[in-house]
Amino acid sequence: MDIAFGREVCCDLPSAQKREWLVTNGLGSYACGTVAGLLTRGYHGLLITALKPPLGQTLQVAKLDETAQYDGRSYPLFANRWIDGVNPEGQVHIERFSLDGAIPHWRFACADALVAKQIWMQPGANTTYVRYRLLRATQPLTLSLKVLVNYRNHHGRTRAGNWQMDIQPVADGIRVKAFDGAAPFWVKAAGAVFIPSHYWYRQFFLSAEHERGLEPLDDHLCAATIECTLQPGQELTIVASAESEVNLDGPQCLAERITYEQNLLQAWKSAAPDSGADPDWVARLVLAADQFIVERPLPGTAPGKTVIAGYPWFSDWGRDTMIALSGLTLATGRPQVAEAILRTFAPFVSRGMLPNRFPDDGSPLGEGDYNTVDATLWYFEAIRAYTQSTGDERLLSDLFPILADTVDWHRRGTRFHIRQDPLDGLLYAGEHGVQLTWMDAKVGDWVVTPRIGKSVEVNALWYHALCTMADFARQLGRSASEYDAMAKRTRRGFERFWNPGAGYCFDVLEGPGGDDPTLRPNQLLAVSLPNSPLGNGYQRAIVDVCGRTLLAGCGLRSLAPGSLFYQGRYGGDPRSRDGAYHQGTAWGWLLGVFVQAHLRAYGDRAQARGFLEPIADHLRDAGLGTVSEIFDGEAPMTPKGCIAQAWSVAEILCAWQRSR
């Protein structure tokens, strides 16, 4: 599909600043910005390097402020917002913006001259390329680019004060070292003049952070001005890198990036020969899927693989990784990546649990990092999907002892009061002050949706894991009787979830306030998972009530309208946002779950696929070419949260694949 905009979007600041682009390198580093070229987030920048890959993201190069000198006139091609307004408004010169594959591409009109600009990252390297070409002109055009740099965590802000960075001229550019002990970085270009400088631009106003109730002011250092005069047909490539030796040949590096993306699409097409009939937006999501897959170093071995949960602010999370694995890798024809992820996480299983997240600072895992009841259960499903897709019994044989030990831990009890109830076979989980399910918002000591007790989706996953273990045992020639018996008991126990008065499932059994009849989308997993504990009549009832009450465009509401704590708008300061996060906010990943549940309940592929149609339009909004984390629960269901969320992309790809 064509993701492109003319002046009606590009020159209109409110429209252009809400549309964001993202490029990544597979190491956890990224570059991100707006169509307008305006910084609206602290996460916007040209080189944000994962110094402790895949984490430790540090803003190093914030932006290039470009001015074109042509026919005696100056044309600012950039825009900046200050505390007192926007100046200059260079977006008025953008004639067209397009997303070519995953590469953002601008065209600026300066009278009769036309300047093209592209941005991409080199896969596997902490290097960003910014390429300018003079496509059309009747005389030379001079580009003057101010290089704005920084050195801070991407979550933070800079108050420069008297901060002095060390800026040194080097061949073809400059070297920047922010302070003693900081990792140096370079900005280079062949055939251009670099004029080093050192003056701070203070109080950039970040409007998106202001809307989120966070600090909106930031400072950036102008480290150099780059000047180059282009004749018609000539080009200039600026290279920003955390590596001293880089290839400065822009056309060659762009060709390599395009080949990389073409190989991703070819792997998908080879794995799905009937993909030729898919709508173009599916191919867009195949490219988007790659942005989340990154390396995670492992001691004494080659780097493993993991999944960044969402850009721009999430790290790699156990739950998100296992939910997203099938869609990001198997649905895109990359089973080798799936195997690497599964093996990467295996050493981190502790007391039958996968970690919820890895600390952002790269410190060792602590007990508190295992605050998830469902990540490990999703690990069973990820291994099942991989094994079914590949027939690889070697990995299954290697990991089976870990899975068997995990079942044993859950049966006898592990952290956070997670244990199987011997009376009904269901899993109980939770303790005061700890959030364990995917509805995990917490503000200070306030756990917004604690869900202590026997949660419906957790027990759907538990039943599925037991059935899967029985199948694994048979596949490996081992006895499955124990797992069969446990699954049978759990299925009988699951009948307790049905609420006959409401016509759908309780969300939680045996919570501190008793059984919770709140209508939430969690019960859809009892329908969508390959092993369902429910009969078809119950499956259809759940799908119907969720469709009528929770479906909201590109996602499903996390709580039914009319419920006591329902909030249909997500916004405000952190406490307000977290208070709405799972109390009515619609989630993109749940749309994929709903489609798979609908297909299971009704068997109508065309009707199930129809629910995915809004995604095609969404790819032209918010994070371009990808899927947002969340949406308002009320019209117009505005995208919110992360502009690119791994499990949103993954579950939609899975839903499309299974309904194809």
Automatic annotation (TrEMBL):
Q: List GO BP terms, alphabetically.
A: glycogen catabolic process
Span of domain Glycogen debranching enzyme bacterial and archaeal type N-terminal: 19-237
Q: Where is the Glycogen debranching enzyme C-terminal domain?
A: 288-653
Top-level taxon of the source organism? Bacteria
Q: Name one GO molecular function term.
A: 4-alpha-glucanotransferase activity
InterPro entries, alphabetized: 6-hairpin_glycosidase_sf (IPR008928), 6hp_glycosidase-like_sf (IPR012341), AGL/Gdb1 (IPR010401), GDE_C (IPR032790), Glycogen_debranch_arc (IPR006451), Glycogen_debranch_N (IPR024742)
Looking up NCBIfam families in the UniProt record yields: gde_arch (TIGR01561)
Q: What is this protein called?
A: Gll3997 protein
The species this protein belongs to is Gloeobacter violaceus (strain ATCC 29082 / PCC 7421)
